[in-house]
Structure formats: structure tokens, C-alpha cells
Amino acid sequence: MTETPTREVPLSALTVEQKAGLLSGQDTWSTREIAEAGIRAVRLSDGPHGLRVQEEGGDNFGMHPSLPATCFPPAVALGSSWDPDLVATVGEALGLEAASAGVDILLGPGVNIKRSPLCGRNFEYFSEDPLLSGVLGAAYVNGLQSTGVGASVKHFAANNQEADRMRVSAEVDERTLREIYLAAFEHVVAEANPATVMCSYNRINGTYSSENRWLLTDVLRDEWGFRGAVVSDWGAVHNPPAAVKAGLDLEMPSTNGRSARQLTQAVASGELDESDLDRSVERVRALAAYGGTSGPADFGKHHRLARKAAAACVVLLKNDDALPLAKDTRVAVIGEFARAPRFQGGGSSNVRASEVVSFCDALAEYAGPGVGFAAGFRTDGEDQQALLNEAIAVARDCEIALVFAGLSESEESEGFDRTTLDLPVGQVELIRAVSRVAPKTVVVLSHGGVVSLEGWHDDVDAIVDGFLLGQAGGAAIADVLYGVVNPSGKLAETIPLRLEDTPAFGNFPGERGRVVYGERLLVGYRSFSTRKVAVRYPFGHGLSYTDFGIRDLTVTPIARDRVRVNLVVDNVGDRDGAHVVQVYVDAGSCGEVLRPARELRAFAKVNVVAGGSEAVELNLDRRAFAYWDTEISDWVVTPGEYRVIVGRDAVAVDAESVVELAGDEITRVLTLGSTVQEWFDHPIVGPVLLDTFQSDLLAAIAQPGTLRVMGTLPMQKVVNILGESLPAGAVDSLMAMTVGG
Ligand code: BGC
């Protein structure tokens, strides 16, 4: 943090030029300083899973070097921990490193939804589910901001692909935005009061996020009560006056005075109210309150935390009696990633790790002599045959082969999307060849976006998903393989059987500057469960070295629109472990709008000792049952029955209960454009409609068989036919009864 100002002058003491100058960066990473007015520069830096502090003249593409920092597990891994306490601890450590480097605002977390598994930046996002993303995002912000350093929740909003990310228009209907793409941001704003929200590059329904008043002001501030500053993604502003008017406060990085001049001129011409400028200036000045005080970062301690966190993220996908390994098992270690780990993603989040531990380095802690190693493949694809032969020779001579496979940095990064879910062909060949000769084969995967397991899944005995685990990932993998840590990670994203099955297929990444979110709410497991499409491993899946059972589920309504869930988790195995209780709601039969067959509505990670039990209580609030109603522009809980499902994952049900909720009494406004059916269904008008109209025709239409056919007629048509025969004022008085309720 730069020096705290002695005294800030009142706003009225600043000229329009000075104020306009404060609304864009001084350089790549700082806001403008006005020393004579006591206004200090605020320093921002990437984020999200490690500090990327650059010296003067840095860049936002991760091209120039940065100072050493701890590389914690990126969000793709942290998402799989399902553990908000752990994420908060990582957030706090990030804050301490930021504070010690003089950084006031750390640019994270990223809470965008993984709409397609192909998005090149999925490694930087938590999940395909908004609740999981929102809860972990809020935990990150609370942990980080507990150190005094501010957060920047990004990228607001609907930034779900890298293809054409600076211009593409995400064409999304409002209900889908509210329920899927905005919900995680809303949760973070409500639960963690972040210092800043970073607006995305893309357009939403034609309007750039940076100029989207509905997004930045109506929803973010007026509805959600956001009190911080909106900062642009680096270079996301096209029209500074329009952006400030819409609710953007700080444009980053510097535009060398151009934006300030445009804002000054806009005030002079009356295009922009000075009060709009002042409002944003106050918000930018308020950022000076952020920035922690901290001594030098304890990299040793943070490396140990990075190892613990990484181990909690690992997902054991499959285990046919192969794991955990005994210390004296004769293992063959195969795969380049075992000695040169892939542990973070490429682009603006790329951290210069303070140290890196590979699996080969970590192995010394566990295994005795007799461990063979073969690189198996090279990420540049050279010498494939020779490396394959060498790997087969090593695999023949072991009890268990451990194959470290995955994607290299050239295959996925910020800036571009993938076009396939497949592992490189050479690696698939390697896995299959090794599994043919080794008594047992375990595959350990490193990747930022989902990879397909097809073509080799059934050939191997165990699969360990390591995603990108940060700088201590090699040690964490060893901890899990040797059973020192019992795996407890759960998939935060579905692993499909085919790319063609994924919900955005055909719409992603769009064309000619537009991407249509045609799958609407059916994103991730919401699609697979509703459409009953088989997957390789569902959202929420993850094995353990012990077994858990669920009993004594009770679901108690505690109001018209909320319930309490109680249950007991038993650890029925012989190892201590952690279980993630996942509560889904199926509102399928409620109401006239689409409801996904499964929606995660609460979760808790609980540690249970071997043979022990833990009682769990979770509250499902109103939002757990609500949908966004576009007609009345609000959340609605339809009266009716809801299935509350305690799932082992998004498919396997451990226990369930049906609960009846009174829900909301909604009085919809009737017009002559409303259908006859809507008039009959109306809770106030329906019961008195026939008596008021006194019409034989309407009485005939009201017969069930006829109503089915005629119910879609607008009431105007019936009124036209009835004409003078209707009692005077009958229609108007009925419509008036529906207004204002
Ligand atoms: C990225 C942001 C990042 C910023 C600063 C942009 O290109 O989208 O996530 O925080 O650069 O590096």
C-alpha cells in the first residue's frame, strides 16, 4: 500500500478535469494519484489464485515476469473442494501476500459459470453451478478482505467463453441470467461485500457490460445493494461517458488521458451530469480504504497451505481396489507431468510460483527404491514411439503403474477455447499400452477444462482427477495416492460421455458476433438430469477410501417458502474422512415454467471419524424454491410439492422427501389480452367470472372439454362476440380487481 494520505480535500475542491482523471488508471495497475489533494494511488493486481505483481510497465496478458508468490490451486480445483472454510483460508493467505507486496485490490475471484467444457478459462472459474460458485466466491472474498485487501469479483457478466470475448454479444433471456449467470455474483455481493466488481468485456443482448445500466446500476446496486466500485476489465470500456452514466466507476488500465478528456468534454457539453462523475469519483476514492498491513509473506507456511488445499480438491473418480498405495508397492511413474507438473493456467492469472513440487520430487517422502520412471510423452509430441516403448518397459516391471496425463498449456489458456475434450492421441495410446502390461494402472489427470475419459476409462483400475493443483500439487497427489489424505473432492463440473451431449453444443461459441444461450437454464447437470442424458461422471461425484451413509432425513417447512433439513452422516468404513452432503431440489411439477429436475440448493462438507456419525442441519431459504418470474419481475415460489433430495451426486439419491409449500399468493393483472383460461384460473376473478358475465356462451366455454380447446383465446375475442349483452362495466370492474394486488 502506498502512503496513506494525510488529508483528503472535499470533492468541491477538485476540478472537473481532476475528477475525470480519477476515473481511469494512472498506468497498468494503479489508479491516479493527486498528491496535493491528498488522494493516493490504489494498486490493483491479478489474481485470482496467486499474486501477479509486476514492476513498472507490466501487462495484463501474463507475458512479462512478476515477483515470486505462492501459486494456490486455481478455482477449477478449489471448486472441487466444496469447502468454503478452506477457500476462505486460501483467500486470507492471498490477502497477506498482496498486502506485503503493497497491493490494495486483488483481481479475483472469478465466478463465471462453466457453460461449456470447452471454455479456455474454465480453470479460473469454480463450477457449472451458481450456488457452489457463489458460496465459494463469497468465502474467498471474506477471507481475502479479512486482511484489509479488497477483492474484485469478475467477470460481470455472461463471460462464458474466450472466443471473441472482447466483442461477442451473449444473447440470454432474463430468467436464465438471473437464475444461472448472475446468481453467483449476487450471492457474493450479499454475503461478502466485495470492494469491487469487474465488468466483463462482452456484450449482453447487444450492450457492452461496461455500458449496461440495467446490469451495473439497476440490478447490481439498486436491487442487490452493492456498495463498492465497478472496475472495468482491462480495456473493456469503449465509450467512457456512456460507461460512467451506466454505473461504471473506474476504467482500467490507463488510456493516457484520452478517457479523462472525453469525460471532461461530456460534462462541458451536458452529455454527462457532473453528479454522475462525482458519484463515481467518491466510489473510486473510497477504494483507498483497502490495503492491508502485513510484514513479509511467509512463503513456507503458504506452501504448506497450498499443499493441504490441493489435497482437499483432488477427486477420486474411479477406484477398483488399486488405491491407496502401500509404502512398499513397486510403482512405475509414467508421464511427463509427474516431473514437470502442469499446475496452473495460462494468461493474466499466471503466477511465478515461489517453489514447485512435482510428484517425482514428493515421492521420496513415501516410496522406497525400486521406483521406475518414464516420460511416456512429450508435450511437443516429439519422439512418441521411443517414449512409448520406454514406458511399456518400465510398466512391465512394476506392481502398479501411475500414469500422469493431461493437457499442456498450449492446449488451453485464457484467450482461446478448446475444440475437443479429448486428451492428446499419444497419451491415450500410452495409457492403453501401459494398462495392457502393468498389473494395475492408475491415471492421474492434470487439466483446466474437462477432459474425456472415453476410449481408455475401462482399461484402467483407478482415475485420480488433479485438475490444476497449484505449486504444491505434486505433493498433494502423493498424499492422496498413499492415503495420508483421504480424498474428499467432488466434481464441480459434469464429465460427459460426448461433447455432443453438452448443453451448449451447437450454440457455443456462436457466430458473427453473437452467441445464443439457447439451452437457457439447462446448464451442466441441470441439462443432463432434466433431459435424462447419461454422463461418465456426474456433477458432485467423488469417491473416498471410506464409505458414508445418510439416515434420519427430515425436511421441515419453517415458513410458506423455506425448509429445514436434518440428517445424520455415518462413516461406515475404517478411515476418517470428509463427506459432502448435497441437497438438491426438484421443483419439476411446480408451476407453468420450466424447472430443472435437479438444482443444488445447499451443501456442507463434514468430517466424520471412522465408525462415527455427525448430525447435519441445513436451511433451504426462499431462493431454493423460487424461479425468476419475468411477468412480475421478481422471485416467485409456486405453491405445491417439492422433492428435496440428498444426493451422493447429481444423479445418485441417498435419501429424499417431498415437502408441500404454501408458496406465494400471486395476483396477476388481467387484461383483455389475457387468455380465457387465465381469466378462469385467476384466484380473484375466476370464481366470480361466470356470475359477473351472465353469459351462456362463456358458460359453454367453461365446460372442461371446450375450455381445453378455447382456453387460449384472448378475452378480447369473447368480449367482441358478447358485445352489448355483457353487463355494463363488468369487464372493467373485473380487471380492476386484479390491479395493485
Ligand atoms: C482479464 C482479467 C484480468 C485483467 C488484468 C484481463 O485481460 O480478463 O481477468 O484481471 O486482464 O490482468
TrEMBL record:
One Pfam family here: Glyco_hydro_3_C
Keyword set, alphabetical order: Hydrolase
Any one GO molecular-function label of the UniProt entry: hydrolase activity
Protein name in UniProt: Glycoside hydrolase family 3 C-terminal domain-containing protein
Gene3D superfamilies: Glycoside hydrolase family 3 C-terminal domain (3.40.50.1700), Glycoside hydrolase, family 3, N-terminal domain (3.20.20.300), Immunoglobulins (2.60.40.10)
Family per record: Belongs to the glycosyl hydrolase 3 family.
Fibronectin type III-like domain ranges (all copies): 579-650
